[in-house]
TrEMBL record:
Record protein name field: Uncharacterized protein
């Protein structure tokens, strides 16, 4: 397995109301004083509500902590003048300069408001933050910025680091440009709540734009902070640089393409969305109107930046998406069209197909190609720990991990430094995220847990400090945690997730049949291949529905033993799959025969009771026994009749396989096959089929499929018909709502409705859309709703995302 050490990832929640520019700059000022703060993200709220698009974004960012921060009394006084009652010694109200002096000298700050905390809880609910957890309760370890100094290590306490000269957002810069500069450069000096939008001439604005968009190396000199004499302007780094001691940016790439996001708009959500993308994937650009993007002619500096961004997409090395939280779709399309027109003046033809306009709600936040700040030289160390795998597939460490000691001497000498450890399990089967805690991820010790743990974007994460008893005076290396971790199988992950809602899971009747076939084969994939592959049409013909054998098998490719029970010879398989080679069919048959899922044998007639029957090869000798009357028979020509020279082999499907087909159990398997083929290939596909979600002894929901692939959790409903269950619209909506509840309980990213028919019945999409829209979703909103048709073998599969707006 791989171990990486890094700084904390933190999401700071702030008020996105009328004064959001100041509160955002205030949060960035706090981050600028913290080790790793350049990687922090900001999440605004409006009266306690966080936009669903931002909730999806921060879930992809995967913070260790979601925090609010305390405001100062002077801030409260500025935005709510006179609301505080301040009295002089004689009991009279303080006013004017005396009032401000009292406030400025008080050094008193105010706890976050209930609205701030409500918004923070919304964000934390969709993330996998650190929690102190037992089987009964759990609570977040850190909820407020600066709660414990070691969780937010101060840069000023870094040995040998002098925090002085740099480029930063000046306290006097407010408005949109003040936020843009504070996000790009940092802010060492506390922002001024009275600061407004800086007034810049066209030259300085162009220089600032080029610097913000990465096409210019130097900002305007007014951004320089030079308390020490002799510092050359070109030698100044950004304020953020002081937060990166010992850190390096690491990108986990699955492919070489780059996804750039251009966010237009002037709201707090627009700004936050761009920073979230930048800190999760890089290549996130915010274009507020203060840069001149609302002018009739786009400024040349903006065009130069767009040229750099779009040129990568033009060369095929990346993609460009233009989005906004504040602009409607039609306006967003106009913005992209305008960018294309302006770029075509420079490029000529071939610009019309570059880029796409997508609303913030429709943005996809993939789990791959992510970046984070890691400790240099220790971000990808291979380690070996003995493990065992139980019957469900859960992997457990048998010995503790080695201590995550720092090799960087400067970091090691910081008096209050907590770093974080990422453990990536080797087989790519880890189910990531979902809010699981140390209660599920740490092996039980019988006492206090050695540390905290959480399911994170790369595997399992834990902090570098112990939470059990630590004796005084022990060596520093012994103060580091050495946990034994568990990597839950999909089945155990589902049970752990359901336990958060007082639920458990169990196999349905159809699920038991599929599980039995898996045990016979030894793996689930073989069952999927058999019941969704080229042998499926032939297996279905074993349900002999004609009155006579010749009606069922006119080409003598099989024999009807009795009603709904037929067996096939080899030609029965080849005629049903003409596009598949005989060699491939032979291989598939032999694999099923070895597993006992298909049985080879003879069709014989008893000389006593005249019963026609299938006798498996394992029961046949020169003498064989009738399955009906137990009479002994000779294996001679009257028993098999034709052909004269020797009997022909026939093939029978195991009774459990026949029952699976009778219950249309092949449709969920076909959906599983489709999802495995289209899952992106970033991780191993795995699923659970035909399970019930149970409270007490009562099944709440039956799921045809729960799948996990490439970081995406999918709840699937698979139908053999082209319509959903229920005779009325209300009954169908009730069934859809059950699947919606399952999607919430299992934190699903997609809810898929699939049919083996070529297309859904007219009206099915509208019914799904209306029922999903009427469901009471959590603040993050619904998962992606997808309709799939044509799952039957040799059919053309179609997939469509159902738009709810």
């Amino acid at each position: 397995m791989q171990r990486g050490l890094r700084c904390a990832r933190v999401a700071i929640v702030f008020d996105g109301g009328p004064h959001w520019s100041y509160w955002a700059r205030r949060a960035l000022h706090l981050a600028s004083q913290t080790w790793g703060g350049t990687g922090f993200v900001l999440v605004p709220h409006q009266q306690g509500r966080v936009a669903p698009a931002l909730l999806r974004a921060v879930r992809a960012y995967d913070p260790d902590y979601v925090v609010t921060y305390r405001s100062e009394l002077v801030d409260f006084e500025y935005f709510s003048p006179g609301a505080l009652k301040l009295l002089a010694e004689d009991g009279s109200a303080l006013t004017g300069v005396a009032r401000w002096n009292a406030l400025a000298g008080s050094h008193i700050d105010m706890a976050p408001t209930e609205i701030d905390e409500m918004a923070r809880d919304q964000v934390a609910a969709v993330c996998s933050t650190y929690k102190l957890a037992t089987a009964e309760v759990s609570s977040e370890d850190v909820q407020q910025y600066g709660h414990r100094a070691e969780d937010f290590p101060a840069t000023v306490r870094m040995p040998g680091l002098a925090v002085d000269n740099c480029v930063q957002a000046p306290p006097s810069w407010g408005g949109l440009l003040g936020v843009a500069v504070a996000s790009h450069a940092g802010s060492l000096d506390a922002p001024n709540p009275a600061a407004g939008e800086p007034e810049l001439d066209d030259g300085n604005l162009a220089q600032l734009t080029r610097w913000l968009m990465g096409t210019g190396s130097l900002p305007p000199e007014s951004l320089a902070r030079r308390p020490l004499d002799g510092a050359g302007f070109s030698d100044l780094g950004r304020a953020w640089d002081y937060t990166t001691t010992g850190l390096t940016g690491v990108v986990r790439m699955r492919d070489s393409s780059e996804s750039a996001l251009v966010v237009v708009g002037d709201t707090a959500e627009d700004f936050a969305l761009a920073r979230l993308w930048q800190r999760t994937y890089m290549n996130g650009i915010w274009l507020p109107s203060a840069l001149g993007t609302d002018r009739d002619d786009l400024p040349r500096a903006v065009l130069t930046g767009l040229d750099k961004i779009f040129s990568k997409a033009r060369s095929g090395r990346g993609t460009v998406t233009v989005t906004s939280t504040s602009l409607p779709p039609e306006k967003l399309s106009e913005v992209l069209a305008r960018f294309r027109v302006e770029l075509s003046k420079h490029w000529g033809a071939g610009v019309d197909e570059i880029g796409e306009a997508v609303t913030a709600q429709e943005l996809v936040w993939p789990r791959h190609n992510t970046m984070h700040l890691a400790i240099g030289e220790q971000f990808d160390d291979p380690i070996s720990v003995p493990t065992e795998v139980d019957g469900s597939g859960t992997t457990t460490m048998l010995t503790p991990l080695p201590p995550p000691a720092l090799e960087n001497r400067v970091l090691a000498q910081h008096p209050e430094l907590t770093w974080h450890v990422d453990i990536a399990w080797p087989d790519g089967r880890s189910v990531l995220g979902g809010g699981l805690t140390g209660h599920e991820l740490l092996t039980p010790t019988g006492g206090l847990p050695v540390t905290l743990a959480r399911s994170s974007r790369y595997g399992t994460s834990y902090p570098s400090k112990r939470y059990d008893f630590v004796p005084g005076g022990i060596p520093a290396v012994n103060r580091l945690p050495r946990p034994k971790l568990r990597d839950l199988s999909l089945a155990d992950w589902v049970d752990a997730k359901l336990a958060q809602h007082d639920l458990t899971s169990r196999l349905s009747s159809a699920g038991h049949k599929a599980a039995q076939l898996e045990r016979m084969y030894g793996d689930r994939q073989s069952v999927i291949d058999l019941f969704s592959g080229p042998l499926l049409p032939a297996l279905r013909t074993m349900d002999a529905k004609g009155e006579r054998s010749d009606d069922c098998y006119p080409k003598q490719e099989g024999v009807q033993i009795r009603a709904h029970y037929g067996v096939l010879n080899f030609s029965g398989f080849t005629t049903q799959a003409p596009q598949t080679s005989k060699e491939q069919i032979r291989q598939d048959l032999d694999k099923a025969l070895r597993a006992g899922v298909i049985r080879r044998g003879l069709v014989l007639q008893c000389v006593v009771c005249t019963e026609i029957q299938f006798q498996p090869i394992d029961r046949i000798g020169q003498r064989w026994t009738c399955e009906r009357c137990d009479a002994g028979n000779d294996l001679d020509q009257p028993a098999w009749k034709k052909p004269l020279q020797e009997p022909g082999w026939y093939y029978d499907l195991h009774p459990v396989g026949r029952q699976l087909l009778d219950q249309n159990g092949e449709v969920p398997l076909a959906l599983a096959s489709y999802l495995a083929r289209t899952g992106g290939g970033g991780s191993t596909y795995q699923d659970l089929a035909e399970i019930e979600l149970v409270r007490g002894r009562t099944a709440q929901v039956e799921l045809d499929l729960f799948a996990y692939c490439d970081g995406v959790r999918i709840v699937g409903e698979a139908k053999s018909a082209n319509h959903l269950s229920g005779n009325t619209g209300g009954e169908r909506a009730k069934e859809i709502h059950k699947k919606c509840r399952a999607a919430v309980w299992l934190d699903a990213d997609e809810l898929v409705f699939a049919t083996s028919e070529a297309e859904w019945k007219p009206g099915a999409e509208a019914g799904i859309r209306d029922a999903v829209a009427a469901f009471e979703w959590p603040p993050i909103g619904p998962p992606v709703i997808r309709m799939v048709a044509g799952l039957d073998f040799a059919g053309t599969v179609t997939s469509k995302v159902v738009l709810l707006q």
